[in-house]
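re: ur question from earlier - yeah i can do the single chain one, its not a big deal. heres the input i used so u can compare w yours
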Amino acid sequence: MSDMNDATESASTAPLNDADIRDSLPEDLNAAGYVGPYLFPNNNRRRVPAYLYWAISAICIFIWVFRSGSDPVLMNQGVLIAAILLALFGLYSFVAGWNLKVDESDALVAATKQVGFPVGHASAQMGWRGLLSRPTWRILLYSAEDPPEKRGLVLVDGVDGSIVEWFVEDNPEDWAE
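and the output i got, formated as tokens:
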């Protein structure tokens, strides 16, 4: 019987190989195999937790106000402090839940206008900037020549479409191979 336990124990502690490890994106972020225009998830989904924080905060305040007895052990000033902190964190989550009005296509058009050269290959990535996590598209552009002579990086605000920063340079990459 001990041999079987030893075999089971050694099998469970055996190192995993790369084929055994699985990681996947959530369905709304996985664009592999998708046909048609891809809709990037809106940043305003951050507001859902804000409503939950506010609801829990209201419950804590209600419990603290209507606590029974003059010196309850479980309902003390800590419940009120937790309610205030939850309300403040809810406020931050609500404010940081910007509505994404500019999609990657609009950001690419704005970036192309900014760099001043015909664009060949381009790539868009969503990032966030600042304390309030304002959504910003990072657009990497290459000129249309083969091989590309110029490249640029343009940051486009995801809320109003304005150009935050931009940089263009001659392409230093060697495409001879």
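The radius of gyration is 26 Å. not sure if urs matches, ping me
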